[in-house]
Fold this sequence. Notes:
The protein has helices at 17-26, 62-71, 77-81, 89-92, 116-128, 183-191, 197-201, 250-267, 276-290, 301-317; strands at 9-13, 32-37, 57-59, 86-88, 110-115, 133-137, 139-148, 151-159, 219-220, 241-242. By secondary structure, it is of the alpha/beta class. The protein is globular.
Amino acid sequence: MPTDTHVRHAVVMGAGMAGLAAARVLADSFEAVTVIERDTLPSASAPRAGVPQGHHVHGLLALGAEVFEGYFPGLRAEPEQAGAPVWDWGEGLCAVLPNGIPPSTPMGMPIQTFSRPLLEHVLRQRVTALGPVTLRDGLTVTGLRTAAPGKITGVRVRDGDGEDNALHVTLHGANGTQLPHNDDDFLSFAKSLRGPVADTIASLTPTSAVRRYARTVNRRIAYHRLARWPEGLIALGDSVCTFNPAYGQGMTVAALEARLLEQMLGNRRAGTPLDGQAFQKAAGPRHRLLMADGNHPRPGLGAVAALLARQGRQLVHEPPDRHRPP
């Protein structure tokens, strides 16, 4: 990150969704952008160790998809050509609610589902095609370089370590549910759920082992509360907060952080440094709004739950036309 007008090189630590989005934004303002990734990245679409939930189904929320499409025009079409479908949320989603299954109703809300490796592969190709960007994988960041106390000038590193017409199935558990470890347990767990998922997968042949991911706790580091923040450093992505992946927020938050970074770069007056502390203070409260804390329920949460339950009952019994957008 720059601290004066003479700094022309930005370094991004991590080639995940947040890192790639940040690199795309920084490429418009810097002569050189180096992305450093600990994993040895696959040449094609394949899972990697640094993304433990990368074996599971992913999807972008509407806002996140809009932001990414703005940075990478035509992005939605590339995964679609590789087999990642785009479908209407109301028409294609089979939602099994406590009172039944709502009728299929077009809503005009397109959504795209895909594997995480596919989307990352497409984004890596787009980002590394940018002139200023260089991606170096197999390197582990071991520390930060400083020119003076509180001033970051670089990083220290050391050498580190498609859809194929398949149906990607992710099962969620809650309230202490024991998730399956093998194929038999996976099918048994599916049969314990209401809805058609068990019948759908019963006759299919598994193409991989069952992959469990159980770290669903929200975590946020309140960097924005620090009285002093080192010059030349910005923290975003998983280094600041991680979300329960069941709600699909993480990639959209990465997109919004990139947009905030772009805005701050654009608003910076000539001859002034990029204020990393201002970025953390602007991003911190936004992260908090998305976090759910079971130990400290927010005021009004019970009323929201009651409203959602009532709407769920209405969706099942009211005519489909009632729910179409104007």
